[in-house]
Amino acid sequence: MLGNRKKAASSKNGAGTSESKAIDPLRNLDIFLSARFLAVQEDEDVKRMLQGSSMVKVRSPRWQKRRTLKLMEDGVTVWCQSHKTSSWAKEQQSFSVMEVECVREGCQSETLRQMIGSVPEQRCLTVVFKGPRKSLDLLCQSQEEAQHWARGIRTLQGRVQNMTQKEKLDQYPNCCTFGIFVIRLF
């Protein structure tokens, strides 16, 4: 029948005019997913990662460069500040926590083992990636900072692994995961 559609609930606003209060399921999903991320943001390790940290990237006992690492607002991407300008280098400036195979605390990599005695082992950290990407050896400013980053990456990996595929697609629309590979669509 014509004209027999249910109307959205309306209410008077402060100006005396009506405004529609239609229920938006996508908005509700956004609120749900944001609440889940906020719960993870309550984690002290993740908070520290969101603030960012200045660390030393180590490639050899001679090659050491200061870098700032910071967890981006999406909760899965870690940005690594660099002054390189090539397109390949720019792609290497960030990584997803899901690209990480494991995080090793202490002087566990070949490069960091060469430095035992010259750096405090408790401040060292190695991020090992899945696939062909080189590991990232880091010297943190403190033992606590190294522990925050190691635990934080593990926390975020666990959070993403516990999400359903629908939640992942809703939360991270610019990323598609296929097995162990992460392909960015931007």
Describe the 3D structure.
The chain has 186 residues and is an alpha+beta fold. It has a domain at 40-163: PH-domain like (Roll), CATH 2.30.29. It contains 6 helices and 11 strands. The protein has a 7-stranded antiparallel beta sheet. Helix 2 (44-51) packs across helix 5 (143-161). It is globular, with a radius of gyration of 22 Å.
SSE map:
Elements: E1 10-12, E2 18-20, H1 25-41, H2 44-51, E3 53-58, E4 64-71, E5 77-80, H3 87-91, E6 94-96, E7 100-105, H4 110-113, E8 124-129, E9 136-139, H5 143-161, H6 165-171, E10 175-178, E11 181-184
Antiparallel strand pairs: 1-2, 3-4, 3-9, 4-5, 5-6, 7-8, 8-9, 10-11
Number of helices: 6
What is the CATH top level name of the domain at 40-163?
A: Mainly Beta
* Multimerization state: single chain
Q: What's the SSE pattern?
A: EEHHEEEHEEHEEHHEE
What is the total tally of β strands?
11
* CATH architecture name of the domain at 40-163: Roll
Distance between the termini: 47 Å
Name the CATH homologous superfamily of the domain at 40-163.
Pleckstrin-homology domain (PH domain)/Phosphotyrosine-binding domain (PTB)
Helix content: 25-40%
CATH topology description of the domain at 40-163: PH-domain like
Low-confidence stretches: 6-11, 177-186
Order of strands, widest sheet = 6-5-4-3-9-8-7
Please state the average pLDDT score: 78
Largest sheet, described in full? 7 strands, antiparallel
Organism: Perca fluviatilis
Keywords: Calcium, Hydrolase, Lipid degradation, Lipid metabolism, Metal-binding, Repeat, Transducer
Region (Disordered): 1-20
EC number: 3.1.4.11
